[in-house]
Amino acid sequence: MFQLGLRFFENGFGRPNVPQKKEPEPSPASLLVWKHGIEVRLVRQPRARRYLLRLQPDGTARLVVPRRGNRAEALRFLERSEAWLLERYRQWQARGTARRAWGDGTRFLFRGEETELRVETLDDRIRLSFAGERVAVALGADYRDAVLAHLRRLAERELPPRTLELAREHGITVHRVTVRAQKTRWGSCSARGTVSLNWRLIQAPVFVRDYLLIHELMHRREMNHSARYWKHVATACPDYRAAEQWLKRTRLEQMD
Asked: Which long-range contacts (CB under 8 A, 24 or more apart) does 176-182 make?
């Protein structure tokens, strides 16, 4: 997930109580066409503490405006972030141009290892195979969707029980585990005890997968990223920093 943040502070102590002209405020989700033809959506989030700029998987930018922020300051933040955003936008364009059909010999990530897709013809059917997995499909020119659908089924079968197993090991109560196709998150945990996981964790190494599960489970103890929260994580997963490095190097947008 591409993300850039800037803390936004306002200090009103000692200021005279003089009415000031209000800045124009962004609507709940206002869209503008910015430089280089990049579409930027301004979204106000009352709980946000700082401005956040992200490049979405569809190539649009999302600029979060915090509770005390305003449109004018948001646009200034956008201007200061121009070089960063433009570089990410060019990377996004390059990935789209480089995308190709998946066929015999295509290589992709599975359980942390680069694996090769083999395509075999069996009478009127096609069999896809990789890393011990077998998938029967109809004849086609691009098998990307079939492979990714199989990976998602594996994730839906494997991730929830592993999450519950780790929850039991650490004495944590979880009410529900879901596997979804988030665009910018590896996982999340709600205050009600629902853990949501990205199916692409099936492509990560086992130690990274388990770290991410523990990361979300520890939010059942601390619903934040405070120092106390990270102590819980370090106790449950001593090598978490190595897993964090892998996640930073391997962004969701680069997985296929």
From this structure: 179/152, 179/155, 181/152, 182/252
Q: Nearest-5° angle of CA 111, CA 236, CA 171? A: 105
What is the torsional sign of CA 46, 47, 53, 56?
negative
Is residue 157 domain-shared with residue 130, that is, in the same domain? no
Q: How remote is the C-alpha of 44 from its chain's centroid? A: 20
Query: Cβ of 12: how many Cβ atoms within 10 Å?
Result: 6
Can you give the pLDDT at residue 190?
A: 93
Please say which residue of 63, 98, 133 terminates a domain.
98
- Could you give the CA distance from residue 245 to residue 249 in angstroms, rounded to a whole number? 6
**Rounded Cα gap, residues 128 and 226, in angstroms:** 46
Distance from chain centroid for Cα 97 = 22
CA-CA distance, 23 to 72, in Å (whole number)? 7
Measured CA to CA, the distance from residue 1 to residue 33 in angstroms comes to 22
pLDDT, mean over the chain: 85
The total number of structural domains that make up the chain: 3
Name which of 144, 142, 151 is nearest 202 in CA terms.
151
- 256 vs 253: CA distance, rounded Å: 8
User: Which regions in the chain score pLDDT beneath 50?
Assistant: 1-26, 28
Range of the domain at 189: 151-254
Place of tokens 């209000």: 22
**Contact criterion met (CB below 8 Å) for 118 and 104:** yes
